[in-house]
Amino acid sequence: MNKKLQGADRIMVPTIIALSVVVPIAVAALMVFPETFKVSFGNADLRSLPFLHAVLNGATALLLIAGGFWIKSKKIALHRFSMMTAFILSAIFLVSYVISKLSNDPTPYGGEGWIRGLYFFILISHILLSVPVLPLAMFAIYRAYMGQITAHKKIVKWAYPIWVYVAITGVLVYVFMVPYY
Fold first, then answer.
1. What are the domain boundaries of the chain?
2. Predicted model pTM
3. Which of 71, 87, 142, 158 has its CA 20 to 30 A from that of 41?
């Protein structure tokens, strides 16, 4: 490993790990203790944020699928653009989601019967798999940026299907919840 890469790794690897620990803990705290972290944003009506989250997740899913298509077609620039845009939209989602959790009261799911079980399966798998997406995506992007394509591919083997699943199920969670917002 060259000195430039070692120096970058010394900064980036701990940063990615720290973000990968802090972000899920912060989001979990917002979900478990919603009243403790309640914040008012003045007269702003933030009840439409779940719709924005569905749009961001849907766009992310489409960009990820397009990015997969572009890399298979050896169109590296289009792949890079799709994947970075997906990452940026995911980051915007995360910030918006935190704002939503800080400002909006929790909305319980009201479905009954088998649909309730399906909803909770999708929700729980979405939440659990969203945790590794952040470090996997950041490490994949970092390794690609540093020109470590073999390492990038090894990470993407896991990151890509998980990230696509999380993006698609994010939209599905919204679809299930629409009647209760």
1. 48-180
2. 0.90
3. 87
